[in-house]
Amino acid sequence: MKNLEKLLSELQVQKLQTQTRRHFLRDCVSKVGGLALAPLLFGCEIGKDGQAKTGLNLSERDLNPLAPLPPPFAGKAKSIIYLHMAGAPSQLELFDFKPELAKLHDQDCPESLLEGRKFAFIRGVPKMLGPQATFSQHGQSGAWVSDYLPHFSKVVDEVAFLKAMHTDQFNHGPAQLFMQTGSPRLGRPSLGSWVTYGLGTVNQNLPGFVVLTSGGKTPDAGKSVWGSGFLPSVYQGVQCRSKGDPVLYLEDPSGMSRDLKKNVISAINQANQEDFESIGDPEILARINQFEMAYRMQIEVPEVMNINDEPEYIHQLYGTQPGEESFANNCLLARKLVEKGVRVVQLYDWGWDTHGTDKDGSIDMGLRNKCRQIDRPMSALLLDLKQRGLLEDTLVVWGGEFGRTPMQENREGKVQGFKGRDHHTDAFTMWVAGGGVRKGASYGITDDFGFSGVDERTSVHDLHATLLHLMGFDHEKFTYDFQGRPFRLTDVEGELIRKIIA
Amino acid sequence: MIQFVFPLFGRFHPILVHLPIGILLFGIILVFLSRKGQNTHLASIRLAFLFGGMAGVLSSVSGFLQYRYEGFTWDSVQFHFFLGLATTATAFWLYYELGKKEDFPSFFKAKSAALVALLMFTGHLGGNITHGETYLIEPLPAGMQQLLGYETGENTGPKLPAEGWEELAYYEHVVQPILNQNCKSCHNAKNHKGELDLSSYEALLQGGEDGSILSGGDAEASALFARLVLPKEDEDHMPPKDKRQLQKEEIELIRAWIALGGKTESKLGEADISVETLEPFMEKTEAPFYPSAEVPPLADETLKKLKTDGFFAETVDKESAWLMVSCVNYGQFADADWTKLKPASDQIAYLDLSGTQVTDQILDSIQSLPNLTVLKLNETDISGEKLSALQSNPNLKNLYLNKTQVSLPQLKALQNHPNLAKVFVFDTPASADESGGVFSFLLEKGNYRLPPLPTDTIVY
Predict the structure, then answer these.
(1) CB contact under 8 A, B317 and A472
(2) Mutation for testing the B interface, residue in A369, A372, A387 having most B CBs under 10 Å
(3) B432: part of which helix (H) or strand (E)?
(4) Would I find Secreted among this entry's keywords (chain B) (predicted)?
């Protein structure tokens, strides 16, 4: 009993620590008046069913935070596959065709572009760098795609391009955080967490939000890009290993039967449950759920995460190499996971930071190699989702965290050994496809150098607002109370990009 | 005197008006704090009325200058102006009344109260000029607004039907609504900035301080259009850069109207504009995906029962009664388990039985779902023999038969289904069948390939 009191007083202290000025101000307004009114309006809460309430008003959702919920309105999409090219691919070599830029190749960058601008590495007056790829128009929509993506050029009619995206962060970490959480600073929930929080998960044996990485490294911003921020941690992305067993210790150890394991887990959970009932910390529920999820995952994960049983033509379509860490494998896994009811699959592929400091980071060689790694898999993913009818209600998003400059990078004022481009925030290309997206659309126009958007510019918040809309949320009403005020994924901005909505 | 001084002083009016309000209120508060026979505050009150009166003079003068230089009409400011003068005069009169007396004059509290009333009413009229007459009404709930006799309709811009728009009057249905939404708040009969009123065609023809703004047939020469397309930084750009900007379609519509002659008689169909330009203003009459029929929502207990039985069961959205049911965690589901779904027959609009033990018999049961819109039977033992049963599900739109034994001829049984739009038959005998055939729905066979390219293996 003494211990319990100790815990309760600790809880009280913790509660007080999270009280902020905003709580105080809000309570000043609402509670003082409420004090006077409450007895008149509601009578006395205590004693209704014979005992005082503990103050915990638990819904079914609190006890099972991943239980499915209906969206506020019927969205066209039920799941998202987000392909994030960490490092930021060059829009000028892939989608944003700028013949005028070729004419300026190797000439000094006009002053007007540099005035009042800051770049990550470019100093002084850099040279312009013409497109290093050959462009042509493809499909019914006539979308411009370069020869870097020959397979993708066959599926352009499925996607909608956003060609005048812009962000306000020119360093990878903050820009990735901004792209994934709506804020360049740590502490906000990622897009996937918001969606999982809002909709729960369909398949109770799999996590709602799965993360897979390729390219040898995880994103610069670290795991916060799939973190849950101030949302309960049960909504964060579950990273699976890209090589070997996707989840460690899935198999029962020798001498430990599944029944015995179940007994252990239910005993632990019972203890945790009691703990929760006295303390009321939702993180305990997250813990209980993780134990249960881990147990249930043993049923489904070995099958869903195993690409070996896929037929040969599927492997050929994606270009998968079972056993290796590859973007292709991850694309195939993403399809399998979505097929089994996972809400959000987030793929990160590292290696797109093409500054021209070495061959791998050059836009005429390294970038071609990187494109080769994703071209077939991402095109295959779209086709595979399409033939299974999954593209009807699955959103596919592709893009980096920013774009690249129309100028040749001149790090430390020196000419680089290879052709490369610096980070660029003002204009870059992304594409979305699938559930509720207008096929073959192109939105946004950049100037003759591809430096800035001149029409139909779209911000990161606009993209988030649109993705949430397609999932059935009004981004202005989808909020979570934290530190005394409601928070949104889009903060106080974001407008729907209506022209890419079918 | 230097020319800018008067207009500049005029612009201080919104600040200066607060001086008499504050000072006079302070004096009046002291009046009411004083008990009978107690006159400790008397000197302060006199001072307050003196300074309040002087501040009233400053306010009135600056207010008059603002009226002269800022494009307000006399009609809209006259009452405010005269009441301001009256307030100032009253303040001085009360100051005079107090004189050097030792005690309050008769009825002084009543006179002070009258001054408060004057002050408040003057201030309110001033607020109406700057913020608009509906400023205090707008935050009220719609019902209360109507009770007070205000229209609650907003200026939402043009609203066009998807069909028959060609016959609509261009000015009335497109141009005026655009002006109402974007321009009228500053350019109306009462508050005409730049001496311009855009609330009607007749007023528009009058032009503004720089003369006519419309020259029919020549958009570039018409300020009505030309100012819209000036760079945003240009000080002549309209609307001012901190206000809502016109969409490019709206600008294009204004241009096309002027090019057409700038007359009220023109029809929308006569103009040289593309349908895409009009699209953003068309009311979308998109049919909802799920049936429009109304059914009572499923009882909570029934929904709970479905969940405990092992189904995924949720409504398609928070408001809807339509139910999504999936067996994603219920692979053992077989034909005999249908009874568990029966209580929700009317509500089920989306049914996913993929990967379950169901056979052809299940189609007989599925027949009883009048509102079924999406049906997934992937990876089941469906042979395709009984597909014709689905003709009894009039609302069915999307049918998934991937990885079943369905053959192409069997799909003929679904021909001319009233609503069926898409059928997916990836990895079935039907998808391998090359014989083709025309279907009344979109048949997705899949089998996509990305043939190898020579470049696939090049590594730089």
Answers:
(1) yes
(2) A387
(3) helix B429-432
(4) no
